[in-house]
Amino acid sequence: MIQNQLIQLPKQKQASVQRKEDKARNEMIDLTNKISQIGGVWTLGNFKSKYALIPDKEKENAIKIQLQFQKKVLKTPAPPNLFFMSEKGIKNSSEKLEANLLAVLHNADLPPPFEGQQRRTQITYNKNEDIERKVEKTKKEFVRKLHEQKQKFLQEKAKLALPHFQKYPDSLIGKHINHKFRNPDGTMEWYPGKVLKIAKPNGDPLKIQFEIIYNGYSEPWGFNLLQDLKRGDIILVD
User: Fold this and answer.
1) Count of CB atoms within 10 A of residue 114's CB?
2) Are 78 and 44 within 8 A, CB to CB?
3) Phi, psi for residue 96 in degrees, rounded to 5
4) Sign of CA dihedral 125, 129, 132, 138
5) pLDDT, mean of residues 43-56
6) pLDDT attached to residue 210
7) CA–CA gap between residue 35 and residue 68 (Å, rounded)
8) Range in 72-76, 169-173, 212-216 with the lowest mean pLDDT
9) What is the DSSP string of the chain?
10) Which of 226, 220, 170, 175 is CA-nearest to residue 198?
11) How do residues 177-202 score in pLDDT, each as one tens digit?
12) To the nearest whole number, what is the mean pLDDT of the chain?
């Protein structure tokens, strides 16, 4: 009986290995099919155009597929956390997943290591400060561009409300806004505040002076807010 059990052990181990290989193979086939349905493998060069073709509701899932394909099929070397769908029990946002994918695609564009150094590179990869800096730089640049795009969208959205406020200036009172100013050093900064009242009425709505109190300031200020709204220097918060 014992001898028969010993004979069965190698067979069981072999069967287990075979099951794992079959599972991995099927997973790669599945990912390959899914990747073909979203325009193929994305790269840094085609990311913007490929991403734009994906319907908004499917963008997050498409990014997840691209990340999994890079990890399990192409085996792109990158810090493990870039492939995580969540961290510390918290689901990664769409913006976070996009930034991670761009960082992975950046690594995919890096030249391969010398053959004699490949094993050493794989072992010490996560300690390579130069690559880490490049990854972090790519992520920060993507987040910056994403923020700029969001700001522009909100500015354009606010402009659409201008005709309403020109006709009904009082309706701006009580609104929370972000107001763009140029700092002494030339940089632009958004200041949050609340519109208090009309300080100086005018027949031309664009010349009406509103009184506004900014967060962190005790004294109200007066500005032609509709003129700034027209220029895109105001974002309506609520």
Assistant:
1) 9
2) no
3) -65, -45
4) negative
5) 86
6) 92
7) 10
8) 72-76
9) -HHHHHHHHHHHHHHHHHHHHHHHHHHHHHHHHHHHHTTS---TTTHHHHHHHS-GGGHHHHHHHHHHHHHHTS-----GGGG-SEETTEEPPHHHHHHHHHHHHHHHTSPPPPGGGHHHHHHHGGG-HHHHHHHHHHHHHHHHHHHHHHHHHHHHHHHTTHHHHHH-GGGGTT-EEEEEEE-TTS-EEEEEEEEEEEEE--SSGGGPEEEEEETT-SS-EEE-HHHHHHHT-EEE--
10) 170
11) 888 888 888 888 888 999 999 999 99
12) 80
Measured between alpha carbons, how far is 232 from 167 in angstroms, rounded to an integer?
18
Residue showing tokens 């009242």: 197
Q: Cα(192)–Cα(114) distance, rounded to whole angstroms?
A: 53
C-alpha 64: how far from chain center: 13
User: Tokens 């908004």 sit at which residue?
Assistant: 56
* pTM given for the model: 0.43
- Calpha distance 155→233 (Å, rounded): 7
Structure tokens at 141: 């640049």
6, 7, 9, 168 from 3: Cα distances, Å: 5, 6, 10, 93
Per-residue burial over 174-213, b if 16 or more Cβ lie within 10 Å, else e, is ebebbbbeeeeeeeeeeeebbbeebeeeeeebeebbbbbe
User: Is the confidence at residue 209, as pLDDT, over 90?
Assistant: yes
